[in-house]
Structure formats: structure tokens, C-alpha cells
Specification:
single chain; alpha/beta; Glycerol uptake facilitator protein; 8-stranded parallel beta sheet; 6-stranded antiparallel beta sheet
């Protein structure tokens, strides 16, 4: 495998951070033991627990953003078994961790004398293994929960893990010393004589078994990949990003090319990212733009994105004959590794001229978290177009008209404003709903509200203005992501969390002739009526009904809006598949209850309903893989 300089340099930093962090968490308790003996006092279990826990907490906050703060061979093994850490980096991490621990024990021996902080069990060997297994099980369970689950508070990991170390040592310290870490035990054991080393196997076997068991258990109860996050606490995708940037994505490396420092790229596709809030019409624009480009003889790949799988957009685009890949479980900024990997797969499969990506509708800060990293790390792989942000006229007026009463939550409206502020091109969609004067006035108001930005109007539905937009992207001399904006991530997180997200799929079988177009509209109307009764604003509700003879796709983009539907079905098919996505300002549980009630009420006794999947969630705090503070 080709490993470029970017990967080697980055991994060396991570290895160094692991060694330094492990040094810190081993030196602290060993030095404490030595210091107590110098004063003629016995070290208490309480003191050892507190110092160990505080050391772990401090090292996590100091170095976790560099290496993910494993500092423990058992933890690295647990992450690898759970699929949250690449196996090929386990041994290098172990070498770093054991090296740091040995160096820490050596330094403590020089300063306080040898033999301090040694772990020798006070119970039979098998009992000691069981105790270490249970202590490490609890520790690893906390680590994998707070470090790799997007529902966890971003400030929690260090404190939660440090506290777990404290109570684990209080529980098991008198019996085994409460190691939970093969590196922590090996370092002092090397300076503690043959007796210490003879018991070392206990502290290797117990923690490793406990970490593996906890990691596997948490993956079983996590509740879906959409809840898993990447950086800074899970290196799996971050390392893939670096590796892909160091490899040619179009052609494999032949033996005669391995001496090259960096293989050349044969094709450098244009990458267009289309941001914008929920309900702006991004998917319709992707389909329309892709169609226009295909007519020009270009090869096009599409990337859709959502917080969960079963996306109406992906189903619609695939059934429209588009080449599309989906990234679920978080926005491009938090799934940056998957974005690059997916783009590389598209390049390998169809060698596209253009890749168009549609980020999650509630995502912002793309210029800092997606565009700058692409320009910095993948400039030789992708020709990045200026960032287009698509906006619905009604939502746009909510932002630019002072004193206008908006149904959107203020934090959700904050996200939309930030999307517009960072845009290179503001694209006002749905201009077919505006007369000529309204179009001119709205574009003029937008230029005043966001001076210096390119503004254009289109109708993704009719195709009006789409060619002009594509032409503007092709001839634009403005750098992609030319504006990094200040984003308050607390408000950003609240703006996402106020929305309940639901993705569901079902199989429908009619007992008698069913008008599926009317069926689809009634589903939207009932959801709309219930949301209105509860005072909940709809960001968007989409559904697609597919049969062997055609499809209907229906959508609703606000509580006060009018449901829209397009498509055809020949005849009266009896078997139909349904995919529905809903984003509404209410709790996920309440939203799921509404959708379930509406579907069952709609089918009545003439249609058999079988729910295939149902996922409802509230997005966690966004944790980008990268965030650049300055322009590239």
C-alpha cells in the first residue's frame, strides 16, 4: 500500500501523543507512590485513585484531539474489535503506549527509586483476572459510549473517563491495584523485579478481555450507525481521509510506480457542493443539473447525505437513473472521511467529469469544515467549485426582512443565516412561484443583506435558470469556500436538536383499487394538520411511493405550505413501497407517533401496511473531523 508523506507525518504526531499521554498517566501514580515512601507514609488507595483519574482527565483534554487519547493497549484493542479503529494501527499504538509507560517508570525510578507503583495481586490469579476484566469492562464501556456516540455531550469524555478510573481503583485497588491498562502495569514491573513480572499476564489478559467485551456490547446497544461519530475520538474515518489523500484514486499503483513520491491523477473531476436548509429543493436541483450535464455528454456522480439511512432523495435519484451514493449518520463535516472515500469510489467506478454533493439540510460551516480541507488535502484530486447555497424564498424572507415573524425556531433560523453568510453563490430557488417584480425585489434585498455575494434565481422544478447557474459555476474565478464565518456551535447544535428527524420505509398491499396519488397527498395533509394543531413547524416532509409501473414523490416544506406531488403510475398497482422522511420541530418520539398514527389511519382496512424500518432521532452536537480557521 502506498503511504504518502501526509499519512506518515500525521501518524507520527499521533504516535508521539499516545506515548506522551501514556507517560503522563503512568508517571503520576508511580511518582505518587515514590513520594509517599520518601515521606515515610503509605500511599492510600484513595490518593492513588484520585491522582490516576486526574492524570487521565488531564491527558485526554491535552492530547485527545491529536491521537484520540487511547493511552491504553486494551482500549486500542477494544476500539479495533468494534470497528472504530483500523487494525493496521493497533501495533504502532501499542508500541507508543508501552514505550511511554516504560519511560515514565524509568523516570520515576531515577527520581524516587525503583519498585514504586508495582501491581501485585492480593487475591488468587483467576480472581485477579476477573477483577481486572470487570474494572476494564466498566472503563471501556464508558470510553466507547462518550467518545464515539454523537448523542454524548462533547465536553463529557475526559471527565466521565477520569471519574470511572477513580471509582474503578477504589473498587479494585486493594485487590489488584486497579490497573485496567497493560502498559500501566508493565512499566513499573520492569523495575520491580522478577516477582512483579511473574504476575504480568494477569494485567494483560484481564484488561484486554474486558475491553473487547465492553466494546462489542456497546456496538450491540448503540442503536444504529447514524449515532456513531468520527473525529476527534474515533480515528477510523480520519485516518482513511489522510490515506486516501496520499493515494491516487483513479489508478492502482503498479510496482514500477512505487518509487514515485506521489502518483499523478489522470482525471480531476469538478466537485460541486450544494448547501441549503431543509426544503430548499436541493435534490430536485441535483436531478435537474445532472440531467443537463448528461445531455452535454458529461459523466456525473451524485452524493446524498442525511442523519439516517432510508433517504427519499436517494431513492428518487436512483429511480431517475442517476448514479448516486448515500452517506448516512451525519453531515459531510462529521463524515468527512466517508465523503472523500465515497468520491474516490465514484471516480473509480465511472470516472466522472462532475461530482455533485448535497449536504444535510441543517448543516453549516461547510467552508471551514469541508471546503478548506478538500482544498488543502485533495487539491490534486478534485476541482472544487464555489459553494452554492440554495434557499426557499419564504425562508429567505425570514432572514432578510427585519421584524418578520418566522415559524422557524430562532436557532434553526441561525443555521440558515450562517449558510447564507458562508455561501459563494446564493441561489434563490422556486422562482416559478414569484412574478417578475417579486424576483427582482428579492434578489435586490438579498444583495443588500449579503453584500459582495453572487446572487441568482432558478426554478429547479422547471429547469429555468439551471443552465445559467451551471455556467456561472464553470466560469467563476472566485475561490471555493472564500468565506469562513464565525459559528456558535452551541446555537448550531440547538438548531439541529430542535428538529425531530424520522426516516421510515414500508410495504403496502392494497386489497382493492387504490388511488396512490390521493393516498400520498392524504398522508402529507394529515401530518400537516397534526403538526399545525401542535404548533410545530415543518421543515420538510417527503415521501416516495414506488410500484412496478411508476412512482409518486410528494413533499411539504412548511406547516403553512401546500403539499406538492409529481410522477405517474400506470394502471392501479396493488403492491407499492413507501419511503417517508420527516423533519419537524418536535421531539423524535412525538414525530414517530404522529407518522405511525397517520399511516395506520390512511391505510384503513383496504391496504395492508408492513413497516420495514422506522428511525427517529434528534441530531447530536456536530463534531467536525476538521475545522480550518483560515482560508487555503
Amino acid at each position: 500500500m502506498y503511504l504518502g508523506d501526509d499519512l506518515r507525518k500525521d501518524m507520527m504526531r499521533r504516535y508521539a501523543a499516545e506515548a506522551i499521554g501514556t507517560f503522563g498517566i503512568v508517571f503520576a501514580p508511580v511518582a505518587l507512590s515514590g513520594a509517599h515512601l520518601l515521606r515515610g507514609a503509605d500511599g492510600s488507595v484513595m490518593a492513588a485513585a484520585l491522582v490516576s483519574g486526574l492524570a487521565v482527565l488531564a491527558m485526554i483534554y491535552a492530547l485527545g484531539h491529536i491521537s484520540a487519547a487511547h493511552f491504553n493497549p486494551a482500549v486500542s484493542l477494544g476500539f479495533a474489535v468494534a470497528g472504530r479503529f483500523p487494525w493496521r494501527f493497533v501495533i504502532p499504538y501499542w508500541i507508543s503506549q508501552f514505550s511511554g509507560a516504560i519511560l515514565a517508570a524509568c523516570m520515576a525510578a531515577l527520581l524516587f527509586g525503583a519498585g514504586h507503583g508495582v501491581h501485585i495481586p492480593a487475591v488468587p490469579a483467576l480472581q485477579a483476572v476477573g477483577i481486572e476484566l470487570m474494572l476494564t469492562f466498566l472503563l471501556m464501556l464508558v470510553i466507547i459510549a462518550v467518545a464515539t456516540d454523537r448523542r454524548a455531550n462533547g465536553a463529557v469524555p475526559g471527565l466521565a473517563i477520569g471519574c470511572t478510573v477513580v471509582f474503578d481503583i477504589l473498587i479494585g485497588g486493594a485487590a489488584t491495584g486497579g490497573s485496567m491498562n497493560p502498559a500501566r502495569t508493565l512499566g513499573p514491573a520492569l523495575f520491580g523485579g522478577a516477582g512483579a513480572l511473574s504476575h504480568y499476564w494477569i494485567y494483560m489478559v484481564g484488561p484486554c478481555l474486558g475491553a473487547v467485551a465492553a466494546a462489542q456490547l456497546y456496538e450491540m446497544i448503540r442503536g444504529g450507525e447514524e449515532h456513531a461519530i468520527g473525529a476527534p475520538n474515533d480515528l477510523y474515518l480520519a485516518l482513511k481521509d489522510i490515506e486516501i489523500s496520499a493515494m491516487p484514486v483513479e489508478t492502482p499503483i503498479r510496482k514500477d510506480e512505487q518509487s514515485m513520491e506521489k502518483p499523478p491523477h489522470i482525471n480531476r473531476p469538478r466537485m460541486i457542493l450544494v448547501g441549503g436548509f431543509l426544503g430548499a429543493g436541493k435534490t430536485t436541483l441535483l436531478a435537474r443539473a445532472s440531467g443537463r450535464l448528461l445531455e452535454q455528454g458529461k459523466r456525473v456522480g451524485l452524493i446524498t447525505n442525511d442523519q439516517a439511512a432510508d433517504l427519499v432523495d436517494t431513492t428518487f435519484l436512483r429511480q431517475s437513473g442517476q448514479f448516486v451514493r448515500e452517506i448516512a449518520g451525519g453531515c459531510f463535516c462529521c463524515r468527512f472521511g466517508q465523503l472523500i472515500e465515497t468520491a474516490a469510489q465514484i471516480v473509480a467506478e465511472i470516472s466522472p467529469d462532475v461530482i455533485i454533493g448535497e449536504p444535510v439540510g441543517s448543516c453549516t460551516d461547510l467552508a471551514a469544515t469541508v471546503l478548506q480541507p478538500i482544498k488543502d488535502l485533495y487539491a490534486d484530486a478534485y476541482d472544487l467549485a464555489p459553494l452554492s447555497v440554495l434557499v426557499d424564498p419564504v425562508r429567505l424572507r425570514d432572514v432578510i426582512e427585519p421584524g418578520r415573524l418566522s415559524a422557524m425556531h430562532p436557532s434553526a433560523l441561525y443555521i440558515l443565516r450562517k449558510q447564507l453568510e458562508e455561501a459563494d453563490i446564493i441561489v434563490i430557488n422556486k422562482r416559478d412561484l414569484l412574478d417578475a417584480q417579486e424576483r427582482r425585489d428579492l434578489e435586490a434585498q438579498t444583495r443588500v443583506a449579503f453584500p459582495g455575494k453572487a446572487v441568482c434565481g432558478i426554478s429547479a422544478l422547471t429547469g429555468d435558470g439551471v443552465d445559467e447557474w451551471l455556467e456561472a459555476l464553470s466560469r467563476s474565478e472566485e475561490a471555493a469556500g472564500a468565506r469562513i464565518v464565525d459559528v456558535d456551535y452551541d446555537i448550531y447544535a440547538e438548531g439541529e436538536a430542535v428538529l425531530g428527524w424520522l426516516n421510515a420505509s414500508a410495504t403496502l398491499k392494497s386489497m382493492r383499487a387504490t388511488d396512490w396519488k390521493t393516498f400520498a397527498l392524504k398522508v402529507l395533509e394529515r401530518i400537516q394538520r397534526t403538526a399545525s394543531d401542535r404548533g410545530a413547524e415543518i421543515a420538510h416532509v417527503k415521501l416516495i411511493l414506488t410500484s412496478s409501473t411508476g412512482q409518486y414523490i410528494a413533499n411539504l416544506t412548511s406547516t403553512a405550505g401546500i403539499p406538492a406531488i409529481r410522477g405517474t403510475m400506470e394502471g392501479v398497482p396493488s403492491d407499492v413501497s413507501l419511503v417517508i422522511n420527516a423533519r419537524v420541530q418536535m421531539s423524535p418520539d412525538a414525530l414517530q407517533g404522529i407518522v405511525e398514527d397517520v399511516l395506520h389511519a390512511n391505510v384503513g382496512d383496504k391496504v395492508a401496511l408492513q413497516m420495514d424500518t422506522m428511525r427517529s432521532l434528534s441530531p447530536g452536537r456536530p463534531v467536525p473531523t476538521h475545522r480550518y480557521a483560515s482560508l487555503i
